[in-house]
Amino acid sequence: MRTIRATAVPLLLVLLISACGQGQPEQTQAARQQPAPTGSAAAPTPTPGKDGIGRGPTPKPPAKPASFGNPGGKASIPAEARAENTSKPNRKIGTGTKASCTSDAVVKAVAAGGIITFNCGPDPVTITMTATAKIKNANGPKIVLDGGGRVTLSGGGKRRILYMNTCDEAQGFLTSHCQDQDSPRLTVQNLTFTGGNSTGDKTEGGGGGAIFVRGGRFKAVNTKFVDNRCDASGPDLGGAAIRVLSQFHGEPVYIVGSTFQGGVCSNGAALSSIGVSWVVLNSVFRNNKAIGNGANPARDGSPGGGSGGAIYLDGNLFTLRIAGSVVQDNTAKEGGGGVFFVSNDRTGTMRVENTTWKGNKSAGFETSGFPGIFFLGARPPTVSGPSLKR
C-alpha cells in the first residue's frame, strides 16, 4: 500500500491564520467613519435626572433680586444708613414655597421682632395683607424686614401694611418718654410696598398709607413704594408711602436707593412728617400727587391740603437733604410740586445735591427761584450740581 505524507503548510499562511483567530477583527476605516444609527434603532442617550441617572433636573435659578433707586446716584452712604446684615436671621417667613408666605406669617413675625427674612421659593412673590403688621415695642431693639429683592407686600388697596408707634399703649410702653427713645430701630430693605391705604385711619393725625412710624429709629434701603394712598383731604396729614412722627434725639430718617411712584394723598404723596429730619440718598420720586385743596392752614370753606407732591415736611427745627436722586413729574394741587417745607420757627434747612429735578408742578404757589419747592426756613435752600428745572 502506498503511504501518503502530509504536505507542510507554508509559514506565511500559518501566521495569517493565527492572527485571524485572535479576538475580533478590527473595524475598517470606512466602518469607523459610519455615523451612529438614528431613529428607532438608535440607542437612547441617558439624560441626567431621568432613567435613574443623576440627582434630578437642574433646579431653576432664582430670579434676580430687584434693585431700586437711582443707579446713577453717587451720594456716599454713611455706615448707619446702609442695609443691615441679615445672614443670621432670628426668623424666616415661609418654608420654601409661595403658599407658605402668608399675611398671617408676616404679622406674627413682625410682632415677634428681630431680624426677619423670607423663604418663599426662587420666584418673586406678592403677599396681600389681610391685617396690618404691627411692631411690639418690647421685641427689639433691632427689627429688620428684608425681602431679598423678591417680595412684595400689598395692602390690597384696603389697609396700611406696617405700623410702629412707641406711644401706642396697645404695642407696649417702654419708657416714660415714648416720643424720644432709641428703640425699636426699624429697617425695611429689599422689599416692595404697594396698595397700602390708610384712608379713614386718623390715628396720630392720619397718613402713612404703606408705613406709619412714631418714635425709635427708622430707615428704608433698596425699597420700592408704588401706588399707595392716604386720605384725599386734610391740612396736615400725608405720606402715602411713609409717615414719620418723632425720632430719637432728632436723628434723621434715612431713605437710601429707594423708589417712590404713583402715591396719592392730601399732602406728601411719598414722604410726610412733623418735626422730623430726612436724608434721602440715590433715590427716585416720580408721578406722586398731592390732591387735597385749601393748603395749610385750610382756607375758609375748604378741607385743606394739596401740598408737597412728593415730600411734605412741617414742624420747627428739622432738616432735609436730598442727594444723588431724581425728583421728577410730581404734582401738588396747592404748593410745592416736589417739596413742601415749612419750619414754623424758621430754623429748618434744606439741601439739594447732584439731583435731577424737573417737571414738578405746583398748581398754586412755590418759592421764587426754586421751581417745584415751597420753602420757609432759616435761609433759602442750598442747591449744588444740576440746577432745578421747571
Average pLDDT score: 89
What share of the residues lie within helices?
under 10%
**Distinct helical segment count:** 3
Give the termini distance in whole angstroms.
134 Å
Supply the helix-strand structural class: mainly beta
Query: Domains counted in the coordinates: how many?
Result: 1
Give the radius of gyration: 34 Å
What characteristic shape results from the CA principal axes?
A: globular
Share of β-strand residues: 25-35%
- Number of β-strand runs: 28
How would a crystallographer describe the biggest sheet? 16 strands, parallel
Residue windows where pLDDT falls under 50 for at least 5 positions: 1-43, 48-53
Biased composition (Low complexity): 26-44
Keywords: Signal
Signal peptide: 1-21
Region (Disordered): 26-99
Provide keyphrases for this structure.
mainly beta; 3 helices; 32% strand; 16-stranded parallel sheet; 6% helix; 390 residues; eight-stranded parallel sheet
In short:
It contains 3 helices and 28 strands. It is globular, with a radius of gyration of 34 Å.
Q: In words, what does this structure look like?
A:
The protein is mainly beta and 390 residues long. The chain has one domain. The chain is built from 3 helices and 28 strands. It has helices at 11-20, 29-32, 103-112, and strands at residues 91-93, 114-118, 125-128, 133-134, 142-159, 162-165, 185-196, 211-214, 217-221, 224-226, 242-245, 253-256, 259-261, 264-265, 271-274, 278-281, 284-286, 289-290, 311-315, 319-323, 326-328, 331-332, 339-343, 349-353, 356-358, 361-362, 373-376, 382-384. It is globular. The protein starts with 10 loop residues before the first helix and ends in a 6-residue tail after the last strand. 49% of the residues are buried. InterPro entries: PbH1 (IPR006626), Pectin_lyase_fold/virulence (IPR011050). Residues 26-44 have a biased composition (Low complexity). Residues 1-21 form the signal peptide.
